[in-house]
């Protein structure tokens, strides 16, 4: 039985499939499961390679068989020469698949049918939550086509500049949720005196009040109690209208899927992420859209994505994001290698370069057709990228605001995550964690190692499960009620 795996013949490290004792497979030290072992002698300062790419540099001479991790593997910024469009592998169109979705007046298609209560500022968060909590399962039982009344509250909206990156990002998030295809009706709730004025949002994005879109401020309504009462009245009036929506057959091309990972481990880039990448390619073949994000977590792998860019302009947008993040982390006295997290490192990941190379695999192999700002509407079809932090709730919030009607989430350590109004499909990277957390994980990509399944087989399983979920099948996250506290708009800029 092979206890290690070598991902490319040019790699000078292997990954331990099982813990290695001294003497096993040439190990000269205990190698924890998922961690790296030197496959050959590596001189001090020499590059360490995995995935046929540099993941760091030897901080000291490393002998063959030694454990390679944070104690002897150093991060260093990689000087990369970028190429554009040199690795274009278009996916041939496939026979059309379908799912049962909600066709909206906008022409977009939803996979769920929620009523959203969106706050402009932290000061209206309590009102929004109290309004939503009124609509118990007993009340909603009379509206079987409505998936829920959900409050989307956050901790910002005031004490911020009234223009610039942070303000614009927050307004894009609010607009994206208010007009999301998974949202049948929306109530916006503000305080009244905040910097992030609801009226400004409505004017900027052409939002018009109507039976399924309402807005109000606590100060105008005359206090918290009356705001809650009025909010309940407004949502109660929306429910019969939202319940009129019914699922109809829609092409898979209407699916826009967030490609996300969290709690990553050494297996993420070997099992779940490549499998999700294949599912993304299958979706692209249908004319659908995959949206990769988490800019700090493609750092060191962006050169692989620019080679897949359909134009130099698309590739240079991605490079511009990388440069912005280098400046952003530097001025906040951090480094790009502050990521991976302690959990990632315990799972065998050492540097951001190693983590990024595995994370980028979620995007499959098809051409990169567009690069977008955080929460900016994604309009291109195919494989795309949206700027965001690596912090999962903030990243997914932006992807949903950009239009994603499904979320895929690979995890190795075992993340408990959901994100209303888009159902989240969780994909385990390893069988041990999947069996330990079966109530949380939808798919076991660990079968690629434990049962000899191919990446393509598991990718097909993910893709077919996405069609089922899009048609209404609940995910494990939905079954456990996750998703009410994962709305976290990225807060950019000074808090004043």
- Which secondary-structure class do the elements indicate? alpha/beta
Strand order of the largest sheet: 17-18-16-15-19-20-21
Proportion of residues in β-strands: 15-25%
Mean pLDDT: 96
Report the biggest beta sheet as strand number plus sense, adding barrel if it closes: 7 strands, parallel
Measure the end-to-end span: 60 Å
Count of β-strands: 21
The value of Rg in angstroms is 23 Å
Q: Label the overall shape.
A: globular
Unreliable runs: none
* Proportion in helices: 25-40%
Number of helices: 16
Structural commentary:
The protein has 496 residues and is of the alpha/beta class. It is 30% helix and 19% strand. The protein has 16 helices and 21 strands. A seven-stranded parallel beta sheet has the order 17-18-16-15-19-20-21, with helices on both faces. Strands 1-2-3-6 form a four-stranded antiparallel beta sheet, with no helix packed on it. It has a four-stranded parallel beta sheet with strand order 11-10-12-13, with helices on both faces. It is globular. The N and C termini lie far apart (60 Å). The mean pLDDT is 96.
């Amino acid at each position: 039985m092979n206890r290690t795996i070598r991902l490319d013949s040019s790699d000078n490290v292997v990954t331990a499939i099982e813990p290695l004792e001294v003497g096993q497979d040439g190990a000269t030290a205990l190698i924890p499961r998922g961690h790296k072992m030197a496959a050959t002698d590596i001189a001090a300062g020499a590059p360490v390679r995995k995935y046929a790419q540099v993941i760091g540099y030897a901080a000291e001479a490393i002998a063959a068989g030694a454990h390679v991790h944070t104690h002897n593997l150093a991060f260093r910024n990689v000087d990369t020469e970028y190429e554009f469009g040199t690795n274009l592998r278009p996916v041939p169109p496939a026979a059309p698949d379908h799912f049962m979705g909600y066709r909206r007046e906008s022409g977009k298609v939803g996979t769920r049918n929620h009523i959203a209560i969106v706050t402009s500022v932290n000061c209206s968060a309590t009102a929004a939550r109290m309004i939503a909590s009124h609509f118990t399962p007993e009340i909603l039982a009379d509206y079987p086509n409505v998936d829920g009344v959900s409050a989307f509250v956050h901790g910002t909206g005031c004490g911020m500049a009234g223009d610039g990156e942070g303000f614009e990002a927050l307004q894009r998030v609010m607009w994206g949720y208010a007009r999301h295809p998974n949202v049948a009706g929306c109530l916006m709730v503000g305080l009244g005196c905040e910097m992030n004025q609801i009226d400004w949002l409505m004017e900027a994005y052409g939002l018009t009040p109507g039976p399924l879109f309402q807005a109000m401020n606590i100060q105008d309504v005359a206090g918290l109690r009356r705001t809650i009462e009025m909010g309940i009245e407004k949502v109660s009036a929306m429910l019969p209208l939202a319940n009129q929506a019914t699922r109809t057959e829609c092409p898979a091309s209407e699916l826009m899927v967030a490609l996300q990972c969290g709690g990553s481990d050494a297996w993420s880039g070997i099992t779940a992420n490549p499998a999700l990448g294949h599912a993304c390619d299958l979706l692209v073949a249908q004319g659908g859209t995959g949206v990769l994000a988490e800019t700090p977590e493609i750092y060191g792998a962006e050169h692989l994505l620019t080679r897949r860019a359909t134009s130099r302009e698309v590739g240079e947008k991605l490079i511009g994001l990388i440069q912005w993040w280098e400046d952003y982390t530097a001025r906040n006295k951090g480094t790009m290698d502050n990521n991976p997290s302690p959990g990632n490192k315990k799972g065998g990941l050492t540097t951001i370069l190693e983590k990024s190379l595995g994370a980028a695999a979620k995007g499959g192999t098809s051409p990169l057709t567009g690069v977008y700002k955080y929460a900016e509407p994604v309009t291109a079809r195919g494989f795309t990228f949206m700027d965001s932090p690596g912090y999962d709730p903030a990243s997914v919030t932006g992807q949903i605001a950009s239009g994603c009607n499904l979320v895929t989430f690979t995890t190795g350590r075992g993340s408990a995550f959901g994100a209303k109004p888009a159902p989240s499909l969780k994909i385990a990277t390893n069988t041990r964690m999947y069996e330990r957390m079966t109530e949380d994980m939808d798919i076991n990509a660990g079968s690629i190692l434990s049962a000899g399944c191919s990446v393509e087989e598991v990718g097909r399983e993910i893709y077919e499960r996405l069609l089922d979920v899009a048609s209404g099948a609940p995910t494990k996250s939905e079954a456990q009620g996750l998703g009410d506290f994962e709305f976290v708009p990225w807060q950019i800029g000074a808090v004043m």
